[in-house]
Amino acid sequence: IKAARGKYIFIGEGDVELEDNCFTTLLQHMQKERADIISGRRVWLHKGETKQLALQRANRITASPFNSKLLTTNCEVKLKDDIEIPLLDASMLIKREVFKTISYDENYRKNAWRQETDLQINALSKGYKLVFCPHVVCFHHFKLNDKGGNHSHSTLNYEIGIFKCNFYMTQK
Question: Cβ distance 95 to 6 under 8 Å?
Fold first, then answer.
């Protein structure tokens, strides 16, 4: 982030495949909505599922894109229009100028669970606009026997990390 020189920064995850038009579409909708941070749909690929089948499944979801009780997003949901919501998916396009007043909290340990949530809540508190853009889809690949990154520890350690990060965030 400190080394970035462009006007925008895209934050993403290594196991997410972006559509070919992802950046162009996000940028167009960011400008149209006057958003400071924008993200699209993230559709999880189940084991053996094609992108087409995953998209058909996700298109049937009717839930709200934001769950205020759990402070989570349902970014698979298909909506007709862009919508301003308080939390977005972790894969997001951000105006570089946003990082002049906010930054990632590096105190999130283990798996950094909730680090993006914390950043987005911080952005909201500073008056930045967050927009969910359902016109972009990225696919989260199924992890078969994933032993790297956050998954290099046991499932129990991973879950404990989630608990600790959730606790840390709620204490903030």
Answer: no
